[in-house]
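[scheduler] slot 2 assigned
[scheduler] job type: sequence-to-structure, two independent chains
[scheduler] chain ordering preserved from manifest
[runner] begin chain α
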Amino acid sequence: MEPSQKTDNILLGVIVVLLVILGYGGYRLYVLNSLYATALTTTQTLTESHDILQGELTRAREEKINVQNELTLQESRVNDLEQQIQDITGTVGTLEKLSKTDPELLQKYSKVFFLNEHYTPPKLSTIDKALVYDESKQQQIHRQVWPFLEDLIKDAKNDDVSLFVLSAYRSFGTQAALKTGYTVSYGSGANAFSADQGYSEHQLGTTVDFTTTGINGGLNGFETTPAYKWLVDNAYRYGFILSYPKGNAYYQFEPWHWRFVGTDLARVLHRQNMDFYDMDQRQIDKYLVTIFD
């Protein structure tokens, strides 16, 4: 083979190889371009889908927030309604309770209000004779006051303090007879320590005159006894208050005379160091509903 022919063959081979390489390279470039285009399209599609999903997610979150807000609002309305129902129920219960509670029980008597001759407590209980100083005389107390009085006397005994009931409920007629007797003995001076009929707290059936051992079952000297000191420190716990303390505007100091007004009011008077007759009647009346609680 001639040298020139050999050279041509080599060039031809080189050209073929180059063409193959170029063809393969072009194919690769085509494939890469196709893949890139596909990837770009896919990316755009995914981006669009992401944006759509993100938008839907945002809307879903907003709807969730709206639903939660609406639920909170509805719960608040339900709670308000329940509270209104409870308030109404409580008001009805309070009114019903008040309708069954004698309004006279917290009124100020002693020359202020008047109880007529027909007034008597709705129910009276006979006080246990063991707690009455003179067992031959029957003493009665308002039925709903009796448990408080019984606890008071028994708890005093547990503290080694002797307390006995000297006088409790008195009818209009009994008070009239008592006042007449005092007037005969003391004249107008009886007004300093004895109420006229209709003005006595005893007619309410919620008031007790106490006595103790060591003073012959009377009243004189009661102020100096451990019994009086115990009552001053503890009677309010059982709903009893001292009606006529020193310096009151109605009667002489009566350390033996204690009136039941309920534990709520008695605690307030004790805590504030106030006297029952110095408190406004409108304030007193607020405690009527809980007087026997």
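[runner] end chain α
[runner] begin chain β
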Amino acid sequence: MRDPYAVLGVSKTATQKEIKTEYRKLAKKYHPDTNPGDEKVAEKFKEISAAYNIVGDEKQRARFDRGEIDANGQEQAPFGFGGGGARQGSANAGGGFGGFHHGGGGAEDIFSEIFGNFRRGGAGGRPRATKGRDKTFAITVSFKEAAVGAKRRLTLGEGGKTLDVKIPAGIEDGKQIRLKGQGEAGSGGGASGDILINVTVKSDPLFVRDGKNIIVELPISLPEAVLGGTVQVPTVDGAVNMKIPAGSNTGTTLRMKGKGIAGKSADDRGDQMVKLKVVLPENQDEELHDWVSNWSKDHQYDARAKFAKGK
């Protein structure tokens, strides 16, 4: 084998940390699982692993630097048993990289740290079945889409690949959708990872969520408040007619059954709570002013009676 320092691309004065860092980079780049069927890459991976087994361990590195062992880990005369010497474990033996293992500094330990679930047992060790990594995305949906459910097309960023995603009815802001098996492929026969979608629900100028219910503040005119009438009310399903009882007041709340947040079934759906707000004309109406002035002389009442009592 070539000089292990040259194989790893480090100087002879490099620290153990620097050597480890370079090995990790090379191991990721030349790992056979990420280059299936490429024999040249597989041989390169064996070479860099064998090199790390020499200089990645402080004791082995010191022996190599002193000339006690060669680049393959073979004893050098006069330290061994003659020119052919016994080997402490040649990295080339058996075609693998697992001959050297000293105090947790060997290539197998780094390999296991990087790729996980490594099954030891000599040269040519194979990784166990490992699940692929999950992928995380983020989408923003409208209040209505979150309330009744929707479908969105998600671009995965891999050659323009797209995926249709079902937005569950009733999903809340900050929740996550998991698409099993749509993430990165596993290794060693392991299952694919998942896609995780973080959902943000935009606020709406009309609707406010309260559990399964939706709250809407509905402006009504003075005649509608006094005389009653039928008005259109917005819902997440579209506008719906609703009857305003005569004598309604600001703060009066009317319930629209089954017009709230959708659930798993029609019976599980919430309601829409409509809070009335009496609104006077924006421009001063002299006729209304005169009429109220005359009417109030004989119809005095305390509008803040409950307010004063803290009710």
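[runner] end chain β
[qc] chain β: Confidence is low (pLDDT under 50) at residues 79-105, 117-124.
[scheduler] slot 2 released
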